[in-house]
Design a protein that fits this description.
The protein has 448 residues and is α/β, with parallel strands linked by helices. It has 3 domains: 2-96 and 208-271, Adenylosuccinate Synthetase, Chain A, domain 1; 101-203, Adenylosuccinate Synthetase, subunit A, domain 2 (Orthogonal Bundle); 276-447, Alpha-Beta Complex (Adenylosuccinate Synthetase, Chain A, domain 3), CATH 3.90.170. It has 15 helices and 20 strands. It has helices spanning 15-23, 74-86, 104-117, 131-139, 152-173, 189-205, 212-221, 254-258, 264-269, 296-309, 327-337, 347-350, 376-381, 397-403, 410-423, and strands at residues 2-7, 28-31, 40-44, 47-51, 63-66, 71-72, 92-96, 100-101, 209-210, 226-229, 271-277, 280-282, 321-323, 325-326, 341-345, 356-364, 367-369, 383-389, 427-431, 439-441. A hairpin with a 7-residue loop joins strand 19 (427-431) and strand 20 (439-441). Helix 3 (104-117) crosses helix 4 (131-139) and helix 5 (152-173) crosses helix 6 (189-205). The longest helix has 22 residues, at 152-173. Bound molecules: guanosine-5'-diphosphate (GDP), 6-O-phosphoryl inosine monophosphate and magnesium ion (MG). The site of 6-O-phosphoryl inosine monophosphate (IMO) has 24 residues, from helix 4.
Length: 448
């Protein structure tokens, strides 16, 4: 069977931690979208692993697959593999030959486009990893796939077609003086060919590429369990998120099928677990109706939560914006993903506050909305209708994690049950700290 782990908000909900918890039951962990814009954290026995491209199952020695829906930067992939090996892991990663390659010019263009957009309010605050430009080229049928790197004739032909276009874009539209910049090699066919043909050779020597759908089909036929590891979150999905402040892929559960080559009926017969952070964090721009930034008291509260929750971007180190939980956003995520269960993380971070609020609905021009409007402009006009919850005290969360759900303070359980009722899905796990042992597990989706 399959279990799909999906971010239900704006990314950084703690997906890595749950992939690690339930990954113990899986045989293969599959990323189906995104690239090294993701930053997933696994804390095991006091060791912290930051995973960007390598599926989080590596911490448990599971085979990790980067599906066809991913965009792969070989340079950062090999660097990440080295770092994880230095940390004592032995990651076994296979990459779909249909996955697209992030090339150096994609990163340069991502940076330039963000810079230009920052004059208006259109910049998404991207991770500058070249994600958007790579997916653009995929859709524009001028992308380079992992499989192309294994055949030097094809690689050269593709580069000779696309690189002059990228040069022209950078020089003539964006005014970059390529020859006198640090980016000369990023737009040079010969330099790119040498580097990427060598990466292709390395992929071949290390048997790192697969025909993803066929490989996963065989594993399923052998009775193996697949865990799909979504990156980012539903509200930054290119279709279902707060466009244009989104990433360029589909983090939502439907993409697990398209981005891996496993049929939607197979994914749909499995479990889809939404990962929820007990409040909101956001790296990036755009509106955020429940953001804590309106008064000095709110800003102080946001600072407190940011520090306590370590809310600084895993990939970029940027401080994350903080807000109250947004229920219309979660109802939207439940609709888009069809959650069979949820995991709610970070309830420990909210402990000890004087007040806890939740954006239960929105007020939009006098009308009450219980889900997100379809345009980001209208979303920005929404005023949250806030419900107050009784706060819960700071307690020994490690003890709670070992004692189980009933040891969670009653007020926090009320909060959890409210969330579960509103999204119409049972609680499978509650995060009370970053470590593997600091999660109260109520269900194992592989056993349901
Ligand atoms: P991901 O991108 O969804 O995998 O999440 P990140 O790893 O970017 O961010 C989540 C952060 O919160 C990481 O530092 C985790 O170690 C940490 N974390 C996960 N679950 C919990 C939790 O329940 N409580 C606390 N305090 N931290 C958590
Ligand atoms: P994980 O998997 C949070 C955000 C960026 C930016 C927008 C587009 O760790 O949850 P991109 O570089 O993807 O083109 O940037 O998406 N973003 C994330 N925010 N968590 C992530 O991943 C993110 N990946 C991208 O901040 O607003
Ligand atoms: Mg993250």
């Amino acid at each position: 069977m399959t279990v799909t782990i999906v971010g239900s908000q704006l990314g950084d909900e703690g997906k890595g931690a749950l992939v690690d918890i339930w990954g113990g039951e899986a045989d293969v962990v599959v990323r189906y979208q995104g690239g090294d814009n993701a930053g997933h954290t696994v804390v095991e026995d006091g060791n912290t692993y930051e995973l960007s491209l390598v599926p989080s199952g590596a911490v448990r020695d599971k085979v990790g697959i980067l599906g066809n829906g991913c965009v792969v930067n070989p340079t950062t992939l090999f660097a990440e593999l080295d770092t994880l090996r230095d940390q004592g892991l032995n990651p076994d990663v296979r990459i779909a030959r249909r996955a697209h390659v992030i090339l150096p010019y994609h990163r340069v263009l991502d940076g330039i486009e963000e810079e230009i957009k920052s004059d208006s309010d259109l910049a998404a605050g991207t991770t500058k990893r070249g994600i958007g430009p790579t997916y653009e080229d995929k859709a524009g049928r001028r992308g380079i796939r992992i499989g192309d790197m294994l055949d030097s004739d094809v690689l050269r032909e593709r580069l000779e077609y696309v690189v002059p276009q990228k040069r022209a874009l950078a020089e003539q539209i964006y005014g970059l003086d390529i020859a006198n910049s640090e980016h000369a090699d990023a737009f040079d066919v010969d330099a790119l060919f040498d580097t990427y043909a060598a990466y292709g050779e390395r992929f071949r020597e290390e048997s790192m590429t697969v025909n993803c759908g066929a490989y996963l089909g065989d594993r399923l036929a052998d009775g193996d369990e697949l865990l799909f590891e979504g990156a980012q979150g539903t509200s930054i999905d290119i279709d279902h998120g707060i466009y244009p402040y989104v990433t360029s892929s589909n983090p939502s559960a439907g993409a697990a099928a398209v981005g891996s080559g496993v049929g939607p009926t197979v994914v749909g017969r499995g479990e889809v677990v939404g990962i929820v952070k007990a409040y909101l964090s956001r790296v990036g721009t755009g509106p955020l109706p429940t953001e804590l930034d309106a008064t000095e008291t709110e800003t102080e509260l946001a600072d407190f939560i940011r520090e306590k929750g370590g809310e600084f971007g895993t990939v970029t180190g940027r401080p994350r914006r903080i807000g109250w939980l947004d229920m219309p956003m979660l109802r939207h995520a439940a609709q888009v993903n069809g959650f069979t269960g949820i995991a709610v993380n970070h309830i420990d971070v909210l402990a000890g506050l004087d007040e806890i609020k939740v954006g239960h609905a929105y007020d939009l021009d006098g009308e009450t909305l219980t889900t997100m409007p379809a345009t980001t402009e209208r979303w920005g006009d929404c005023e949250p209708v806030l419900n107050s919850f009784e706060p819960w005290p700071e307690i020994d969360w490690a003890a709670v994690a070992s004692e189980g759900y009933d040891a969670i303070p009653a007020a926090a359980r009320d909060y959890l049950e409210y969330v579960s009722d509103e999204v119409g899905a049972p609680i499978y796990a509650v995060g009370v700290g970053p470590g593997r042992e600091e999660t109260v597990v109520l269900a194992d989706p592989f056993d349901s």
